[in-house]
Design goal:
mainly alpha
């Protein structure tokens, strides 16, 4: 019984450390993703319609994914995987594509909800578009919503031993 408890504790610590590293890499990727998204929305024509919001979100997402693969393959999961293999990168891209679809889905849902709330609270009128800070908030919420999917898929499929 005591051996099982120690084994479970050790397993929890190992996964906890991996998740902490994954979270730190994810935070850096989120800064890239949200920062570039906000920059593109605020300074280009990409802030004008929901379809163009998806273009801005996709552009920022690709750069963030590249950052995350680099650091996850070399630091977070380095002991568990063959670093930099083409098969591993393809898996990472596939998981990321699923995350991107979920991210766009949640961004659309969250920005629509926020838009309706802003109209209801008379913060903006019906003809106004959602402000940049509102889109940034929706983007952050979407990224948080996708975190668990990405971690589980990458930990147990992309970078599995």
């Amino acid at each position: 019984m005591q051996n099982k408890k120690l084994a479970l504790k050790k397993l929890g610590q190992q996964h906890g450390l991996v998740f902490l590293k994954y979270a730190l890499v994810g935070i850096s990727g989120t800064f890239i993703d949200v920062g570039l998204f906000t920059f593109l929305i605020a300074t280009t024509f990409l802030g004008s319609t929901p379809a163009l919001h998806a273009v801005a979100a996709s552009t920022s997402f690709v750069l963030a994914v590249t950052n995350n693969y680099y650091w996850n393959s070399r630091w977070t999961f380095a002991a568990d995987s063959k670093v930099g293999s083409k098969k591993q990168y393809a898996k990472f891209l596939l998981v990321s594509a699923g995350g991107w679809l979920l991210n766009i889905f949640f961004l659309t849902i969250f920005s629509s909800i926020l838009y309706q709330l802003m109209i209801s609270a008379s913060i903006i009128n019906v003809t106004a578009s959602i402000p940049t800070w509102g889109l940034t908030l929706a983007k952050i919420a979407a990224s948080i919503a996708v975190l668990t999917y990405n971690f589980i898929a990458n930990r147990f499929w992309t970078f599995k031993k």
